[in-house]
Amino acid sequence: MHEQLFFALVNPIVALIFSVSFWLIWLRWREYRHLPALTLAFLCMGVGFVLHDFKLLVWPGEVNLAANILYVATITLACASTFLRKNQTPPIALYLAAITAGALPFAWYLFVEPSTLARIVITSAAFAAIAGITFVGLNRLTDKTLADNLFAAGVGIAFFIALFRPALVLTGILDIDNGAEFTSSDYWTSIRAFTPIMSFLVATLFVVAIGIDIVNHLKGQADRDFMTGLLNRRGFETAGAEAIKRDFAVSRLPAMLVADIDDFKKINDTYGHKIGDAVIIAVARTLARHGGALLTARTGGEEFALYFNDVDRADLQDAARSIRVALSQASVPGLPEGYPVTLSVGLHLSYSQESLNDMMARADKALYRAKSEGKDRAVMTQVRLHLAGGIARPS
Question: Which end of the chain is more exposed for a tag (fewer CB within 10 A), N or C?
Answer without folding.
Answer: N
